[in-house]
């Protein structure tokens, strides 16, 4: 769905996966990261905010302001800044997000 530029549908599928995140303990951070990014792209701001908070609690590197290690991928640094920006500004309006199409 991501390759077809259907960000909202991809975000909805990732939200469903995140509800069962305890079944994937070793992949928790990548799943949450993908969910936050796709929710933000798809316009699901409230879900992006909620999952970004979960991600910052699960992985301490996202919540610190320390500079990235020199060998860190620049994409991860950009993703961290995006997630921190999402958490700083909660969604303004409480819009109802449809979970099922």
UniProtKB/TrEMBL annotation:
Annotated GO biological process: cilium assembly; intraciliary retrograde transport
Domain of life: Eukaryota
Matching InterPro entries: WDR19/dyf-2
GO CC annotation terms, alphabetical: cilium; intraciliary transport particle A
Membrane-traversing stretches: none
Annotated protein name in UniProt: Uncharacterized protein
Organism, scientific name: Amorphochlora amoebiformis
Origin organism lineage: Eukaryota, Sar, Rhizaria, Cercozoa, Chlorarachniophyceae
């Amino acid at each position: 769905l991501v390759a077809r530029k259907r960000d909202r549908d991809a975000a909805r599928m990732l939200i469903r996966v995140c509800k069962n995140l305890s079944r994937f303990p070793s992949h928790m951070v990548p799943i949450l990261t993908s969910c936050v990014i796709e929710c933000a792209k798809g316009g699901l701001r409230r879900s992006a905010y909620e999952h970004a908070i979960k991600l910052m609690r699960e992985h301490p590197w996202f919540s610190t302001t320390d500079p990235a290690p020199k060998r860190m991928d620049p994409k991860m640094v950009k993703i961290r800044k995006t997630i921190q920006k999402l958490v700083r500004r909660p969604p303004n309006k409480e819009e109802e997000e449809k979970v099922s199409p």
